[in-house]
Amino acid sequence: MAKAPSADYAPVPIFKTRKMRISLMLTQQELANLAGVAREEVDSFERNLPVRLETRNKILKELLGRRPPGAAPSY
Hints:
By secondary structure, the protein is an all-alpha fold. It has helices at residues 14-23, 28-35, 39-46, 53-64. The N and C termini lie far apart (46 Å). The relative contact order is 0.18.
């Protein structure tokens, strides 16, 4: 059984990371390939299971560094 995340940090809510990935029209495998991590790590991250900080940062970098298709550029 997986450990619950510790209370000393605020995890990104599950629905937000998954929703962000879906809005970018990416599968878990595609996001994993872009971030250079295993698909299972993306799945664990989306379900708020413990993942290494480096893995979390790689996934977030990919999610936050992309815009949904058709989104206006920010100035």
